[in-house]
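Thread: Modeling a multi-component assembly for a lab meeting

Hi all, long-time lurker, first post. My supervisor asked me to bring a structural picture of a complex we are working on to next week's group meeting, and I have zero experience with this. I have the sequence lines for every component (452 residues in total). Could someone generate the structure of the whole assembly? Inputs are pasted exactly as I received them:
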Amino acid sequence: MIAALQHDGSSPPGAAGVDTHQASPALEAAFDRLSARTRRFARGAEIFAEGCPADKVYRIVSGAVRISRLLSDGRRQVCDFLYSGEVLGPEAGLAHRTTAEAMTDTVIQVVSRKALADLAASDLSITGELWRLSLAWFNRSRQHALLLARQSATERLAGFLLAQEGAASGEIELPMTRQDIGDYLGLTIHTVSRSISQLQAEGVIELLSQRRIRVLQASALDHLHG
Amino acid sequence: MIAALQHDGSSPPGAAGVDTHQASPALEAAFDRLSARTRRFARGAEIFAEGCPADKVYRIVSGAVRISRLLSDGRRQVCDFLYSGEVLGPEAGLAHRTTAEAMTDTVIQVVSRKALADLAASDLSITGELWRLSLAWFNRSRQHALLLARQSATERLAGFLLAQEGAASGEIELPMTRQDIGDYLGLTIHTVSRSISQLQAEGVIELLSQRRIRVLQASALDHLHG
DNA sequence: CGGCGCCTTGAACCAAGTCAAGCTCTGTGG
DNA sequence: CCACAGAGCTTGACTTGGTTCAAGGCGCCG
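Re: Modeling a multi-component assembly
Sure thing. I ran the full set together rather than chain by chain. Output:
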């Protein structure tokens, strides 16, 4: 039985949520069993590019990855940000439709998609896990669309901040530039900057440094995001 | 071997593209084999609601369906529009996160998700097909996000029109209201109306009636959308 | 024929984009 | 250790396009 089709809440042990690209223990084990190659990418390096064959599956060991797409008008649309433990690859078709780049120095395990497919054919838990990952991509993408549909810049930014790790009354570490945030939220770098300044002036957040934010009033962010 | 993981282009016979929710012949057959119940929904009727258990899979026999989500500020975000032959259900988690409503009088086949899961357990082609459907949802959602990221209203509308059936130099039939389009594109009904009027004034499209559009210059739409 | 949904259009306002300038941080070389 | 350079971030002034507010038209169905 494949978990992603179930609806009775009887998840198999170790099943991760439907919203994370985090590899389950079973999939993590599969990377080891297939003796994944470990690669290092310097800040800014390209992991794979739009248009190239999607014949590998990647698991981020450490670091942060930006997924983006070049629009025909020259603008760049950032689609997602990925962090340690997350997996990319299974959601792609035959060719990549996006570019993946390291935002910081990043270590990644790589396995051939074919090897993983062979394994999945004999191990239904892997099949289910890969399916779950695809659903996670779907849910994240829809969440992103919901962010983009927000009318005001501050609402979008609030939603973005809330989705970051440690947002609930903690500290947020942003590995991406303001430009990245802007390209993710469909805003200019100026508007992002202004919105951040505004939130700070209102006492909702505090800038520890340019890339580190402390959330002072998570409820206010919640309320802004609506 | 499950097709969605393959990258060598050797798709199984009858496999549909990765961007459509269209049921493959195999899945269509499964609906019949499981003796799907046929239900009729009047225009405006609710098929399933946000929050209710996602224990069924639906196949649209005829009609048109609107998928939407209620935002906490009272606004409604339309996520997708579905038509004859398309399948919804497998992409949901335990509970629906969206509401599905009939935009016109609609006929739908319904099977229990559990029954389909049982079938998928013994028939890998069904498993693969359900997975492909999930990927289709992902791709459509990302496409939608890309539309929403466009800065100008006319660009968004052009992209929306191009994605409609029969857009390439043909006629487009819109089952949805202007409000639906606005809620899909993150625009007000006014802006949608103005943009349509503008495209018509420029000779790019022609309004045969309020809900029927003839595309006169598909290339101009393409260029607008960028 | 009247009423109601749905659509269009005009005018005024405002938030985000654009243009332009200056600041901050970081890393590097003297 | 300090000076410098460059990338990244912030801020101000102005412009523009989408929302808001308001009014009116079209078309369908009872």
